[in-house]
């Protein structure tokens, strides 16, 4: 049996308390492809937590049948710091209470390590050897990252575990949404395969990674050395497993089996066969996603459901103005700026002026995408 579970101690946040990460490993280091999967880096996004529990159970059975053909590293909860951030009984795990921002932004860029490794690679080396040299350098770089604060340390540990992987799945969820995947445009074909295996109806394609989320920290070093003719050694995506309330055994089992189908397709595991449900995949450039903002403060009343096709200028919701003297006149329409598929909505009904309340996977690039190119702060 190769399944091992390790406990990695983390910095103590306060006297008298301890933190740690659990890491499940299957297969043998250096044998076959390495896959890294983590859940709930945003610590208030819980569907992936249950999915990984089921995935571990499936992989244990696969292992009993000698079906593990690669190396699989699973981090069943990636952010114990965020999970401990409670206010009035509510876990607020998206942004660091220590003032270091969104947990899925500003991940270290190890491109320099890859570039230095390329300078020392012999030209006659095979592509596989060149990729292995870069991965070794990236791992060394990740191990040398500063660990001054608990969050610095957490990032360094997660990067060290993941940065030499061939496949990285960072499992998140939205507020209320269809399953969707964020991928780099250069990894479209393999991401489409993942979407089919996961029966995931929406694929969002980024031109260039911005904001330095976790998935792009895995890709950036390979883009930096692309000009030297070495193909990317890592397929890295963010997998959004519906909305925050979509936590059930049936959904989690189905998602775990989707991941298993993809790992089988890649030859990481063997001996498991299951058919993916039929799915029509809507592909959209990230810059063509209408990140809909509320035009007023009030109660949002939806006119469109998740999965509905909408047309440009169509009303998708109304904001009910609670200050209106005449309620019949106190409804402001929320219109789509783009035709496309409504795949995400804000779960909370009380919204403020300018809140992002919906996402539409559109058909054409919008002039006016907000912020850093990512869809949520
Ligand atoms: Zn997230």
**Percent of residues in helices:** 25-40%
CATH C-level name of the largest domain: Alpha Beta
For the terminal residues, how far apart are their CA atoms? 43 Å
Number of helices: 8
What is the name of the CATH topology of the largest domain? Aminopeptidase
Main sheet summary: 9 strands, mixed
| Class by alpha and beta content | alpha+beta
What's the total number of strands? 20
Radius of gyration from CA coordinates: 21 Å
**How would you write the strand order of the largest sheet?**
1-2-4-3-7-11-9-10-12
The mean pLDDT is 95
Number of domains: 2
Strand content: 25-35%
Segments where pLDDT lies below 50 for 5+ residues?
A: none
Q: What key attributes describe this structure?
A:
27% helix; 20 strands; alpha+beta; 27% strand; 377 residues; five-stranded antiparallel sheet; nine-stranded mixed sheet; globular; binds zinc ion
What's the topology here?
Blueprint: E1 4-10, E2 19-26, E3 34-39, H1 47-64, E4 71-75, H2 80-83, E5 86-87, E6 90-91, H3 111-119, H4 127-143, H5 150-162, E7 167-174, E8 176-177, E9 180-184, H6 188-198, E10 202-206, H7 214-224, E11 235-243, H8 249-265, E12 282-285, E13 289-293, E14 298-302, E15 309-310, E16 315-320, E17 331-335, E18 340-345, E19 350-351, E20 356-362
Parallel strand pairs: 3-4, 3-7, 7-11, 9-10, 10-12
Antiparallel strand pairs: 1-2, 2-4, 5-6, 8-18, 9-11, 13-20, 14-16, 14-19, 15-18, 16-17, 18-20
Helix pairs in contact: 1-8, 3-4, 3-7, 4-5, 6-8
The protein binds zinc ion.
Task: Please characterize this protein's 3D structure.
By secondary structure, this protein is an alpha+beta fold. It has two domains: 4-280, 3-Layer(aba) Sandwich (Aminopeptidase), CATH 3.40.630.10; 288-362, Beta Barrel (OB fold (Dihydrolipoamide Acetyltransferase, E2P)), CATH 2.40.50. 27% of the residues lie in helices and 27% in strands. The protein has eight helices and 20 strands. The protein has helices at residues 47-64, 80-83, 111-119, 127-143, 150-162, 188-198, 214-224, 249-265, and strands at 4-10, 19-26, 34-39, 71-75, 86-87, 90-91, 167-174, 176-177, 180-184, 202-206, 235-243, 282-285, 289-293, 298-302, 309-310, 315-320, 331-335, 340-345, 350-351, 356-362. Strands 1-2-4-3-7-11-9-10-12 form a nine-stranded mixed beta sheet, with helices on both faces. Helix 1 (47-64) crosses helix 8 (249-265) and helix 3 (111-119) packs across helix 4 (127-143). The two termini are 43 Å apart. Residues 42, 45, 104, 172 line the site of zinc ion.
